[in-house]
Fold:
Amino acid sequence: MPVTVRRLLSAVLRTPKLISYPNPIFLIPHPFSSSPTQNHRQTQTPTPPPPESYHPIPTRTRTRTPIEKQFETWVQTLKPGFSPTQAVSALRAQSDPDLALDIFRWTAQQRGYKHTHETYLAMIKILIDGRRYGHTETLVEEVLAGACEMNVPLYNSVIRFCCGRKLLFNRAFDAYKKMLKSSDCKPNLETYTLLLNSLLRRFNKLNVCHVYLRSVRSLTKQMKASGVIPDTFVLNMIIKAYSKCLEVDEAIRVFREMGLYGCEPNAYSYGYVAKGLCEKGRVGQGFGFYKEMRGKELVPSGSTFMIVICSLAMERRFDDAVEVVRDMLGCEMSPDFLTYKTVLEGLCRDGKGDEAFTLLEEFRGRDGLMGGKMYRTLLNELHFISREEID
Structure:
């Protein structure tokens, strides 16, 4: 019997027993309760279920954006072994330039495929149209570093982009130098047009003009040496560059050579030469080019009109100056305040005050843009100068 009791006791002691300890906060007696034990039985919280009864909450998958879906669609469309022509078609079919760039980068990572000048040219145009200039600059650097074989349209596209960005001006000439060194991608007329136009946009001050004029001379010599035949637009830019720097003899020489290239001088050709001659002080020659231009029924620009008028007036050739003013008004253009003042005050100081007042009334009647303020200011100036001459 004792042995049996000892075995039962040892079995009971070996059996694990869960003991739950009450929360100490429930042992604090409530002021309105009769006994702590009773209050504990009423407020005791249920024991939480064991961890085995919990089930994990299913994770929700992220919804793909329309751009991601469109990207996956085009990726599936481009089957293995696709060609650069198919890649170009996929790029041009995208309305979003960022999506096109993603496809461009994805295709470059595919085995057995390499981008060509066609794909780079298409991607650069898409990014420029989408105003993604930072990405465009990255592709330009890749191209200049030799990412693909180049051709003339891709070179010109790179030069056009660099010429339009102030900080990339020198990179445009880097691309041009690579074209000169290449055997099958020599610069063409479009290349020289882009570079000359970019240079002329920097012809603001006389001292700066002479700096860039060296580049204009160099480009002109290289263009002739390579056998590229210039057109009227390119020749006009060269004439303008010489005229801006007051190298009028060089400007006239290029003007006379236009016929050798089968080009006919237009109003801009005559205007650049006439302005350069007048600013150089050779007013008679400048006025001669003006009359030759008008004889061909070519209409000068407003700036050409006003420079010729002021130059003639300062040379005391008032009859010719007034003739040009009337011609300008007949072409439905209006001289500015300084042009009127130069002619009319010059007449007054030359002892022709009555003629100046008469011309002012004539100009007021013909010039619809001469406001009352300009008229009164000119009239007061003429009265003031007339009194000075009398005194």
